[in-house]
Amino acid sequence: MNGSRKKAQHLQARIKRDVANRNRIRIIYGFLIVMGIFVLLGVSFAFLRTFYATDLYQTFIYDWIGTAFLFLGGLTLLLFIIYFSLVITLKNPQKISRNKVFVWGGTGIICLISGVFIFQELSSLTINSVRDMKDYSNGVMKRDDLKVVDVYTGSSSKITLINTEEQELYLLERVFNIEEGKTYSFTYLERTGNILNVEMK
């Protein structure tokens, strides 16, 4: 009688473990699918930015949306690692060694800190971009005569970082030849610093 009860309890425990493992696998696949969708959308908007933007404002829109989706993809990856580390640290279904549990716990903490930082960057980017879009739709744009101090163009990017005497500006497409030491009339979005037009002074 006791033997049959133990077998039943063992079978019940095994069924619970199998159900829990299946649920965890579904969650893992869910994370990976969502992350893949975000990355695909980010790449798609980068493609639109490169081939279909007709002016610097459209380039700004596509760039912001694409960057936001890539940020979301990164956040989803970090959440996946955090979830995995929580399962291993708290549940430890595979009964791995204590040292590995500590490693996974530390990895989860690092990913959590990184996730908070990325979320703050994404929130700031979104808030500033939306406000600049509202300003643009209302015809409110900054126009200043600024002397260029430094120009940085990355080797693998079309984005140009322009340091002026007052602030940093961004040229998302290299449609203007900006030289150091010269003064230009910049029309730009105030919060994000994205340039819409450049005129030589």
List the main descriptive attributes of the protein structure presented here.
single chain, 201 residues, alpha+beta, five-stranded antiparallel beta sheet, elongated
Could you give the topology of this structure?
Blueprint: H1 2-51, H2 56-91, H3 98-137, E1 142-153, E2 160-164, E3 168-171, E4 183-188, E5 195-200
Give an overview of the whole structure.
There is one protein chain. This protein has 201 residues and is an alpha+beta fold. The chain contains three helices and five strands, in the order H-H-H-E-E-E-E-E. It has helices at residues 2-51, 56-91, 98-137; strands at 142-153, 160-164, 168-171, 183-188, 195-200. The protein has a five-stranded antiparallel β-sheet with strand order 3-2-1-4-5, with no helix packed on it. It is elongated, with a radius of gyration of 25 Å.
Major sheet details: 5 strands, antiparallel
Which overall shape is indicated by the principal axes computed on the Cα atoms?
A: elongated
Question: Average pLDDT value?
Answer: 90
Which runs of at least 5 residues are low in confidence (pLDDT < 50)? none
Q: How many β-strand stretches?
A: 5
Radius of gyration: 25 Å
Assembly type of the shown chains? single chain
Gap between N and C termini: 97 Å
Helical percentage: 55-70%
Number of H- or I-type helical stretches:
3
* Biggest sheet: strand arrangement: 3-2-1-4-5
SSE ordering: HHHEEEEE
Percent of residues in beta strands: 15-25%
State the secondary-structure class.
Answer: alpha+beta
